[in-house]
Amino acid sequence: MKARLRAAVGERVFTSWFSRLELAEIVDDLAHISAPTPFLCSWVQSNYTQIILDAFVAESDQISRLHFTVRVNGQSQSLVAPAVEELSPAAQQVSGNVPAQKATGNQTRSKDMLSGSGIDAKMTFDNFVPGVANEIALGVARQVSSAAANNSVAFNPVYIHSSVGLGKTHLLNAVALAATAANPSLKVIYLTADHFMYHFITAVQRQSALAFKEWLRGIDLLLIDDLQFLQGKSATEFGHTLGVLITGAKQVVIAGDSAPRDLEMLDERVRSRLSGGLVVPITKFDLELRRAIVNRRTEIAATRFPGVVFPSAVIDYIAYSVTSHGRDLDGAVNRLVVANQLTNEPITVPLAEKTLVDLIRKRHTPRVHIDDILKIVSRHFKIARTDILSSRRSRDVVRPRQIAMYLAKSLTSRSLPEIGRRFGGRDHTTVLHSVRKVEQMMRDDLDLCQEIELLKRMLSD
């Protein structure tokens, strides 16, 4: 593998980023890679995942997913499903991109909390900026955490949904932090959908699925993030767990990027349960909320970097120009702080125009989501969305499905495995074949090129 990577990226890049990676183990289609530091782990995962995955696929077409962790005291943490006792609230190991360790900096855990990707201590209710777009979600989250701390249930289940970067994860973290702070004995589980799948599948592999289910159902507050990524048997198990927890008056809070009716990877009964609870949307931020967020971030920056000053004109410029989501607002402030610290140039509107050009460009290029692509393609070709996601192989379904996958790869930042999951749990090689097939057809068919350009224009409107 390292020889392939060295040939692909060159000696300098390989030495900088790949030489200290280790292959811990391979479980079915999942390769577990460890890095010696959190920074290296995060950087490689963010920038080189596809290159590493391509190298694995070249060696073995059985591998389609990667899992990154940090080595603790020089030892790689095992990826194979922890035994049920290891998954208990007293667990010493946390599966995810950050190793289990004492709570420091941004990562905090109580002895009664299993975290899929780490609870961020900065994501509290006090640090959440309220506005018209999120005030209902914030109020519900506060009520849920207060009720859970008193071993009661406010609303059940609570389902918060919005597009990316609007605060769903922040609210789930805040609920967990507030509830455990008020009642340290509370059993709280925070998991992303990916980690829920990982724990369930690996428990099945270790023949401890029944004990895993009983452990999971014994918690007081379950928080599931990114529900849209739940697939396969783990989605079915989630439905059973949801029903048992609700029947047993245990609080469940879930976040996803779509309304319950659009979560087609879940069966109708689970979608009905979610819809029957409290469904809370977070809408797109208005100018007033964006300005409040920027103002809060600049205040935090000023405490960390004395002498940094954001004039009101710059705050207004960022709030007006960066309209995508909250994370881009955070990024805009961070970039200007770095520019000021490196060059000593005062923070002005001209500096913001120069530094934030790519973020501002997003204002004129709407973000395309896979759900948008499925909607447009199904409407254009007059077939049901469920047919695109199904296993049907007729020509009138296969071609629109391949075009939809091509558009997803071309117009979104999703990886091939992610696209495969959103298209009915397909393998990444199926997505790659579809993309290459459409590219080949476009070279030979001018009408198809025009049709796909039309779809792109429809998605950009």
What is the strand and helix layout of this fold?
Elements: H1 2-9, H2 11-18, E1 22-27, E2 30-35, H3 38-47, H4 49-59, E3 65-70, E4 107-108, E5 113-115, E6 119-120, H5 135-149, E7 158-161, H6 168-182, E8 188-192, H7 193-205, H8 209-216, E9 221-225, H9 232-247, E10 251-256, H10 268-276, E11 278-281, H11 287-304, H12 312-321, H13 326-343, H14 349-355, H15 357-361, H16 370-381, H17 385-389, H18 395-411, H19 416-422, H20 428-444, H21 446-460
Parallel strand pairs: 2-3, 5-8, 7-10, 7-11, 8-9, 9-10
Antiparallel strand pairs: 1-2, 4-6
Helix pairs in contact: 1-2, 5-6, 7-8, 7-9, 11-12, 11-13, 16-18, 18-20, 19-20, 20-21
**What is the CA-atom radius of gyration, in angstroms?**
23 Å
CATH class of the largest domain: Alpha Beta
How much strand? 5-15%
The beta-strand count equals: 11
**Relative helix content:** 40-55%
Second CATH tier, the architecture of the largest domain:
3-Layer(aba) Sandwich
> What class do helices, strands and sheet pairing give?
alpha/beta
Q: Look up the CATH topology of the largest domain.
A: Rossmann fold
Biggest β-sheet: count, sense, barrel?
6 strands, parallel
How many domains is the backbone divided into? 4
Mean pLDDT: 80
Given as residue ranges, the uncertain stretches (5+ residues, pLDDT < 50) are 77-116
Q: What is the distance, rounded to the nearest whole angstrom, between the alpha carbons of the first and last residues? A: 43 Å
Biggest β-sheet: strands ordered side by side in the sheet? 5-8-9-10-7-11
The geometry reads as globular
